[in-house]
TrEMBL record:
<dbReference type="GO" id="GO:0009073">
    <property type="term" value="P:aromatic amino acid family biosynthetic process"/>
</dbReference>
<keyword id="KW-0808">Transferase</keyword>
<dbReference type="Pfam" id="PF00793">
    <property type="entry name" value="DAHP_synth_1"/>
</dbReference>
<dbReference type="InterPro" id="IPR013785">
    <property type="entry name" value="Aldolase_TIM"/>
</dbReference>
<dbReference type="InterPro" id="IPR041071">
    <property type="entry name" value="DAHP_snth_FXD"/>
</dbReference>
<feature type="domain" description="DAHP synthase ferredoxin-like">
    <location>
        <begin position="13"/>
        <end position="79"/>
    </location>
</feature>
<feature type="domain" description="DAHP synthetase I/KDSA">
    <location>
        <begin position="97"/>
        <end position="339"/>
    </location>
</feature>
<dbReference type="GO" id="GO:0016832">
    <property type="term" value="F:aldehyde-lyase activity"/>
</dbReference>
<dbReference type="InterPro" id="IPR006268">
    <property type="entry name" value="DAHP_syn_2"/>
</dbReference>
<protein>
    <submittedName>
        <fullName>3-deoxy-D-arabinoheptulosonate-7-phosphate synthase</fullName>
    </submittedName>
</protein>
<dbReference type="InterPro" id="IPR052899">
    <property type="entry name" value="Class-I_DAHP_synthase"/>
</dbReference>
<dbReference type="Pfam" id="PF18152">
    <property type="entry name" value="DAHP_snth_FXD"/>
</dbReference>
<dbReference type="InterPro" id="IPR006218">
    <property type="entry name" value="DAHP1/KDSA"/>
</dbReference>
<dbReference type="GO" id="GO:0016740">
    <property type="term" value="F:transferase activity"/>
</dbReference>
Length: 351
């Protein structure tokens, strides 16, 4: 049964402006939308401005908007996700990071590193190896959502400081998981991208708060979430005004037990069709077995992924979490070389 939400019945409108529309035209349309009770979200692509009206407007007639000066088209959106829908940004979202790395463009982004930050020595070596392999981001959890309360829970702020230090030393960006609202402020000075883990994909209070920060977020698919639920969770972040959002397929629970999860490669092209947001694949949590990570990484890129998030550890046998799915450094290096060869087939590049 597809999820039916109240939002699905709500009236939401997209107004696509003409390429040559003036700022005055745009402001006039925004005023009319606000008068009707819409919250207006504005996005400007290379030429075209698109206005999305969400909220609970009084009755309205789209044809009234179609005839306003500078308007190319106006229509109601019926899907329950509005700002996440591709129509809001037909050409796709790109996110530019402080060092110039662009996510969602032609180049496939590689994020790699250990599951957890364990020590200065471990994370520094990881950063050096990840950089040498060709990645742009260093990953590593400082706050860890462990299935058991007796497992290693992460280094906390100390881990954040270490991530920042070694990323700056090696010229990498930092992505790390946020588990609760109180961590957001603490994390901001140290990180380049928040990771929302599978277990928190439906932590709506956390998502709402992340909608108010001005730092990119990568949100993973929940372990039993449908694609529509992923997009509705994305909507929580986007509706707060944070449009710098990436989605990530990381495997779902199925009846299969041989692999840790079932990597749903099909979710990647489906998401690419439904949303303008960059889509990542996390083959590490997707399969949970090291030797199957490279083929699933290649499959993700072949399926249209804009990036990969992968676990690599300098010494996986000694890892404090997820060692079995962590690549050896040389495996990551070999994989990136294969990705470089594969990417052009699907019109992409790998740095
Ligand atoms: C992780 O990236 O280490 C992690 C905990 O991932 P997930 O939320 O996908 O389980
Ligand atoms: Mn992990």
């Amino acid at each position: 049964m597809p999820l039916q939400t109240a939002a699905a019945k709500e009236s939401t409108m997209i107004v696509a402006m003409q390429d040559q529309a003036t700022e005055e035209n745009i402001q006039h349309v925004i005023e009319r939308m606000v008068d009707l009770g819409f919250n207006v979200h504005r996005t400007t692509g290379t030429q075209q401005t698109i206005l999305a009206g969400v909220g609970k407007p009084t009755e309205f007639d789209v044809t009234e908007f179609k005839v306003l000066a500078g308007v190319q088209d106006a229509y109601r959106i019926t899907q329950p996700y509005k700002l996440a829908g591709r129509k809001f940004r037909p050409e796709g979202t790109t996110i530019t990071f402080p060092n110039g790395v662009v996510v969602g463009g032609k180049e496939v982004t590689i994020m790699a590193g250990p599951c957890s930050v364990e020590s200065r020595e471990q994370i520094l070596l990881s950063a050096q190896q990840v950089k040498a392999a060709g990645a742009q981001f260093l990953r590593g959890g400082a706050y860890k959502p462990r299935s058991s309360p007796y497992s290693f829970q992460g280094m906390g702020v100390e881990g954040l400081k270490l991530l920042r230090e070694v990323a700056d030393m090696t010229g990498l960006l930092v992505i790390t998981e946020v588990m609760e609202i109180s961590q957001i402020e603490v994390m901001l000075p140290y990180i380049d991208c928040f990771q929302v883990g599978a277990r928190n994909m439906q932590n709506f209070n956390l998502l709402r708060e992340l909608g108010h920060v001005r730092k990119p977020v990568l949100m993973k698919r929940g372990i039993a979430a449908t694609i529509e639920e992923v997009l509705l969770s994305a909507e929580y972040i986007l509706s707060g005004g944070n449009y710098d959002l990436m989605l990530c397929e990381r495997g779902i629970r199925t009846y299969e037990t041989y692999t840790r999860n079932t990597m749903d490669i099909s979710a990647i092209p489906v998401l690419k069709k439904l949303t303008h947001l960059p889509v990542f694949g996390d083959p590490s949590h997707g399969v949970g077995i090291r030797d199957f990570v490279p083929p699933m990484a290649l499959a993700s890129v072949a399926a249209g992924a804009d990036g990969l998030l992968m676990e690599m550890h300098p010494n996986p046998d000694k890892a404090m979490s997820d060692g079995a799915q962590s690549l050896f450094p040389e495996q990551l290096e070999k994989l990136v070389a294969q990705l470089r060869a594969l990417a052009p087939v699907v019109g992409r590049t790998v740095a």
